Amino acid sequence: MIALVADKPLDFKPGTNWSYTNTGYILLGMIIEKSSGQPYANFLESNILEPLGMEHSGYDRARDIIKERASGYEILHGHLANADFIDMSIPFSAGGIYSTVEDMYRWNEALTADGNLLSAESLKQMFSEYPEATHEGQHYGYGVVISRLKFGKLLYYHGGGIEGFSSSIQRYPQDRICIVVLSNLGTYNPWDLSDHIASDLFNQPPPAAH
After folding, report:
1. Is pLDDT of 209 > 70?
2. Is the pTM of this model over 0.85?
């Protein structure tokens, strides 16, 4: 991965703009391994998953036997089909994790107060709005989108997608609401269901589709 990007010119001076890239997350995973002296999967297990009781989450390795592991699907020529196989060492720290709705809720709760997982200062940095990281009226904190465009409420969210799977987590911190949608259909749009759930909870019409 480093060899693919090392010789490429910068798109902009660091600290002046923002653009989402999986490469950045992969580099962060490498930094974690370098600084901790542990494989990324082991670091996750010992520092996040075990302390938070996320017993049904982990780094997705094809050789591991995981009870009730979901298979991924796609819609191909109008019919349901198995998704193409992808070795999770390829996305690495940019998406190689499996989880459940319950465990994602545990993750959400760990980010609601300092000391559960992160210090007060780290939480502040994670959820701050940075002017250089603004896109279409939303901000990108440290691994989280910060928005006020839905229902007039503060929203922290992120999503993900990979062969055969799609997901979203939406957190309305001031309302103590967390909505997690995990799908084993890669072509499914989890945001639509998330917004309709929030619409029912807030008794407001769902936001217009973009």
Report:
1. no
2. yes
- Concatenate the DSSP letters of all residues of the chain into one string: -HHHHTTSPPSS-TTS-----HHHHHHHHHHHHHHHSS-HHHHHIIIIIHHHT-TT-EE--TTS--TTPPPPEEEETTEEEEPPP--TTTTGGGT-EE--HHHHHHHHHHTSSTTSSS-HHHHHHHTPPPGGGEETTEEE-SS-EEE--STTS-EEEEEEEETTEEEEEEEEGGGTEEEEEEESBTT--HHHHHHHHHHHHHTSPPPPP-
Name the average pLDDT for the chain. 93
Q: What is the pLDDT of residue 210?
A: 55
How far apart, in whole angstroms, are the C-alpha atoms of residue 195 and residue 191?
Answer: 6
